[in-house]
């Protein structure tokens, strides 16, 4: 009888292990989904450059999509981030890459959140010929999401004004603040 019990027990365990393996598979599947849905992890596992337009539409609100993926511009004075004065970090609303420190934010009076300097290696620029006078567009280095335009009439120490769409950013306040 011990033999029978042993076999039965082993079979039972095999079912358990099999079930556990299935469970793990679905849990890790869920983890992958959770990681790719943006979030605060930074999403390093996502190949941001490879995301299709359809995938971006799923991840973003309509307004965010128009700005980040279609280089749109939000209405002036429409973003609550204009009045954000806490210490913290402004991150890309597309992929959560940190783009600006609150230390470099200044009151520009333009109606868009404005900064005199991005974080190191955070944005890339290109010339934009949408208006008669070419402007310098800048976008998130990681996901390519359009952020705004940079002008030469900013304050010291850089003299630059990064004029950013508030919808293209999320704000993460410092925990110690
Ligand atoms: Zn991004």
Could you provide a short overview of the structure?
The protein is α+β, with helices and mostly antiparallel strands.
Q: What does this entry look like structurally?
A:
The chain is α+β, with helices and mostly antiparallel strands and 177 residues long. The chain folds into two domains: 1-36; 48-173, Metal Binding Protein, Guanine Nucleotide Exchange Factor, Chain A (Beta Complex). Helix content is 28%, strand content 23%. It contains three helices and nine strands. It has helices spanning 2-36, 53-59, 62-68, and strands at residues 88-92, 98-101, 105-106, 114-115, 123-128, 135-140, 146-151, 161-164, 169-173. The chain has a six-stranded antiparallel beta sheet, with no helix packed on it. It has a three-stranded antiparallel beta sheet with strand order 2-1-9, with no helix packed on it. The longest helix is centred in the N-terminal third of the chain and has 35 residues, at 2-36. The protein is globular, with a radius of gyration of 23 Å. Residues 92, 94-95, 97, 140, 142-143, 145 line the site of zinc ion (ZN). Zinc ion binds at residues 92, 94-95, 97, 140, 142-143, 145. Its EC number is 1.8.4.12. Keywords: Oxidoreductase. It catalyses: L-methionyl-[protein] + [thioredoxin]-disulfide + H2O = L-methionyl-(R)-S-oxide-[protein] + [thioredoxin]-dithiol. This is peptide-methionine (R)-S-oxide reductase. Residues 53-174 form the MsrB domain.
């Amino acid at each position: 009888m011990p033999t029978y019990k042993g076999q039965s027990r082993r079979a039972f365990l095999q079912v358990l292990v099999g079930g556990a393996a299935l469970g793990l598979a679905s849990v890790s599947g869920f983890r992958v989904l959770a990681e790719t849905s943006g979030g605060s992890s930074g999403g390093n596992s996502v190949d941001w450059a490879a995301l299709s337009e359809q995938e971006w539409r799923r991840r973003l609100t309509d307004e965010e999509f128009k700005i980040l993926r279609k280089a749109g511009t939000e209405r002036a004075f429409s973003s609550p981030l204009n009045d954000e004065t806490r210490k913290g970090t402004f991150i890309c609303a597309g992929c959560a890459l940190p783009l600006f420190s609150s230390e470099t934010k200044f009151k520009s009076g333009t109606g868009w959140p404005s900064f005199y300097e991005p974080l190191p290696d955070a944005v890339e620029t290109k010339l934009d010929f949408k208006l008669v006078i070419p402007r310098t567009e800048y976008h998130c280095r990681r996901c390519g999401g359009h952020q705004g335009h940079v002008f030469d009439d900013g304050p010291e120490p850089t003299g630059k004004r990064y004029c950013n769409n508030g919808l293209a950013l999320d704000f993460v306040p410092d925990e110690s603040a």
